[in-house]
Amino acid sequence: MTAIVWIRRSLREHDNTALVKASEEHEEVIPFYVVDDNYFSNATLGYPRVSFWHDSLKELKENLSGQQGKDLVVRKGKPIEQLQKIVEETGADAVYHNKDYTPYARERDEKVAEKLDVPVNKFKDVVMFEEKEILTNSGTSYKVYTYFSKKWFKKEKRRPQEVEDYTTPDIDSDEIPSLKELGFEKPDDMEVWEGGRENGLDRIEEFKDKIWNYDENRDYAWKDSTSKLSPHLRFGTVSIREVFWEAERIKARNPDSDTSGIKTWQEELAWRDFYMQVLYNWPETAEKPFLEQYEDIEWRSKEEAEEDWEAFINGKTGYPFVDAGMRQLKRTGWMHNRLRMVVTSFACKDLWLDWKDLHEYFKKMFVDAEKASMIGGIQWAYSIGTDAQPYFRVFNPYSQSEDYDPDGEYIKNWVPELEDVPDEHIHRPHKMNQIQQENYGIEIGEDYPRPIVNHDEKRKEAIEKFEEVRED
Ligand SMILES: Cc1cc2nc3c(=O)[nH]c(=O)nc-3n(C[C@H](O)[C@H](O)[C@H](O)COP(=O)(O)OP(=O)(O)OC[C@H]3O[C@@H](n4cnc5c(N)ncnc54)[C@H](O)[C@@H]3O)c2cc1C
After folding, report:
1. Is residue 151 helix, strand or coil?
2. Would you give the DSSP letter of residue 222?
């Protein structure tokens, strides 16, 4: 009896639920990956994410083929056609895969299940709790994180599982195409993150010391105090259960210590589940605001707001904290969470940019681009989502910078023009007079831009626009 395990975003063997289940029920198991060429012609796929995926897939193939009698069988083409082909070729009697919750993946998986002549078994793997597992007392899905997370913490959680012994029959596998063959080339000035499970496990190890003070440090981008596990969770090089239980183990080993940092970190994992269940239960939020009353807001498209858009994505708005965040993203494909909130709020309340254009750009740029968390985060900052930031509470890019980067360390790292500007001017360099600018070797308006908008005015305008829409 042979099972095909169709691997998509869980790029690991350990605690890969579909693989574990298949190995419990079959002696012959074929871990199977389809490289869908069409997917790679998608304009919103950027280098950081594709490169991370490529590293991770290659490492998984090496890992499996390096074990006696195992392999990852790779084929190029359309998933449904390649699955039909391999089922026929091997006489497999079942297909196993982990579930994915985006509207696109759900539709694809339904079609595959309809077309295949063998049973398709689907498993929860990428989240701790899925779909409708956590409901309000009246049986509806949660729109508010706080109550969701209370139940999330109380609910019993599965531990990581090992695969049983299995062998992979000797069948042809295609080579994994190179990034070049897939049409991607590393931009010269980009420092991308390396993918792969080994790297993910290293990240977990490195984070073990930081987790204790996560609650105090996480908002300060320059402290490098978060786990940086997001792309690993995105591509499943490590599992959600592994990271959750690792944190529990740290707690258990130190029973007398203050574990609030660990709890705060685990709350982030609950946010991830929260947004996955929002996207599952309200799939329309992939295209529309969760709060329907804001559907008709007329945002400025990136074409209409071309100058502002270009200044924004290139980190040249004249707001140092915003610019530092956008430049970190452009250079590395990742941005600290505090900055993700600040720049998104700026795109909305200060520049009135269309959230869908921002979503496309983030999708292309982020190494950890994950539909549910991204839509959730953007709609939160735009005040149009579940449990959103209220429209009248507008992030002030200056005070955010003063509070979370008081000495301008993060700013200076990403905006080198401001390297010699002293702390008292780093948040508002345009306020320096001529002599100060000369002293610090910078000409505002020439070496670094003046603010492209006036925050106080834009804040008022944004609140008025929201109020107009609410009254209609
Ligand atoms: C506008 C915006 C867009 C975002 N887009 C994404 C995205 O595409 N992919 C993504 O994984 N996260 C996204 N986030 C959430 C968050 O910014 C990142 O998960 C986090 O910065 C990743 O860094 P880390 O791994 O060091 O996180 P840590 O602080 O170490 O947190 C641990 C893990 O918890 C999860 N997590 C943390 N914060 C959140 C959150 N607010 N919502 C959901 N999950 C969270 C992530 O999986 C993260 O790896 C977005 C947030 C905002 C405001």
Report:
1. helix
2. G
Report which ligand 1 atom has the smallest distance to the Cα of 343.
Answer: 1
Q: Which residue among 268, 275, 400 has the greatest number of ligand 1 atoms within 8 angstroms of its CB, and so is best to mutate?
A: 268
Q: Grade residue 44 by pLDDT with cuts at 50, 70 and 90.
A: confident
Pocket test for ligand 1, best of 218, 322, 349, 373 (most atoms within 8 A of CB): 373
Distance 106 CA to ligand 1 centre (A): 23
CA-wise closest residue to 315 among 189, 185, 196: 189
Percent of the chain whose predicted confidence (pLDDT) is above 70: 100
How many angstroms separate the Cα of 312 from the Cα of each of 116, 188, 195, 370, 419?
Answer: 47, 21, 28, 22, 20
Q: Is the CB of 218 under 6 A from ligand 1?
A: yes
Ligand 1 near 203 CB (within 6 A):
no
Judged on CB neighbours under 10 Å (0-12, 13-18, 19+), 104 is exposed
Distance separating alpha carbons of residues 101 and 81, to the nearest angstrom: 22
| Cα–Cα distance for residue pair 88/235, rounded to 1 Å | 29
Any idea how long the chain is? 472
Please report which confidence band the pLDDT of residue 315 belongs to, taking 50, 70 and 90 as the band edges: very high
Evaluate if residue 451 carries a pLDDT over 80.
Answer: yes
- pLDDT tens digits, one per residue of 240-298: 999 999 999 999 999 999 999 999 999 999 999 999 999 999 999 999 999 999 999 99
Q: Model confidence over 122-164: pLDDT tens digits?
A: 999 999 999 999 999 999 999 999 999 999 999 999 999 999 9
Domains of the chain: 2-125 (3.40.50.620), 197-280 (1.25.40.80), 292-471 (1.10.579.10)
Q: Is the CB of 229 under 6 A from ligand 1?
A: yes
Measure the CA–CA gap between 41 and 317, rounded to whole angstroms: 31
Ligand 1: nearest atom to the Cα of 366:
8
- Pairing, β 2-6 against β 28-35: parallel
- Give the whole-angstrom CA distance, residue 83 versus residue 36: 12
Distance CA 10, CA 23 (A): 16
CB-ligand 1 contact for 371 (6 Å cutoff)? no
Average pLDDT, integer, range 394-404: 97
At position 82, the amino acid (one-letter code) is Q
Residue 134 DSSP code = S
pLDDT at residue number 269: 98
Is 46 touching ligand 1 by the criterion CB < 6 Å?
no
The CA R_g of the chain, rounded to the nearest whole Å, is 24
